[in-house]
Amino acid sequence: MKTLIVRTLSGVAFAFIMVSGLLWKPFSFVALMLLILVVSMMEFYQMTMGGRYKVSRTWAIFSSIFLFFLAFGICAYDWPGKVLALAFIPVLLVMIGSLYTKDRASFGEFANLYTGILYIAFPLALTNFIAFQGGTFNGLPLLAFFVIIWASDVGAYCFGMALGQKYGKKLFPAISPKKSWIGAIGGFVMAVLAAWIMGQVGWINAPWYHCLALGAVMDIFGVYGDLFESQWKRHYNVKDSGSIIPGHGGFLDRFDSALFAIPAGVIYLAMIN
User: Fold this and answer.
1) Helix, strand, or coil (residue 37)
2) Domain count, the chain
3) Residue 28 is part of which domain span?
4) Strands (DSSP E) along 123-184, which ranges?
5) 3-state per-residue secondary structure call for 50-93
6) What is the pLDDT of residue 139?
7) DSSP 203
8) pLDDT single digits (tens) 60-108
């Protein structure tokens, strides 16, 4: 009961911060996304690299912040798209810096630096393309994205706990023993329903059938995002990526689904123009 209370209170506080950051002002959106980006990358690097290569890790995080601001400038201030190529410069400097490291025993861990940029920074930079349309900030579509992701998580948890642990097969027992097919189906239904509702209230500007398809696409990729992070944690034998959110773990634990679902959603909306 105590754990449930802690999870509920921290979950409410987390949701309040997310909604406020996404809807208040453009710079509250930027501050929120950068907080998620920096903390998630710190957790990922701590999990995969321990205390090693701190300078290179810091530079990789700086490269990710630079990428986010370039995307922000393109979307909010109509910078030419070609400036995005500048994001490769600090990444190349991370690669060059690896030549000067003295500790070669764990040199293969440098690959985790680039993985963190691709896995975490790139999807979060794409949120700019949802939050800004023609240079005008509107956080509702991005909030709708998160509502779809949260609905999927809640549906999977409720259906999984109620039915999935007793009936049916496990989804990926080697990676995440508690996830079941019944939970996955429940999450899928809730995500599609949430996407349809987001379209009806005008938070997603698309026909109802595209909203249904968007919910389906984001749910499927979100499930794989969850499993992908679970695979990392299982490999490094950690329960949670961090402890910043009481009862929920780290930021990476909370946004693992979003890191796959958001790019999938952005690509789908781009494909339908």
Assistant:
1) helix
2) 1
3) 2-271
4) 132-133, 136-137, 170-172, 176-180
5) CCCCHHHHHHHHHHHHHHHHHHHHHHHHCCCHHHHHHHHHHHHH
6) 95
7) S
8) 999 999 999 999 999 999 999 999 999 999 999 988 888 887 776 667 7
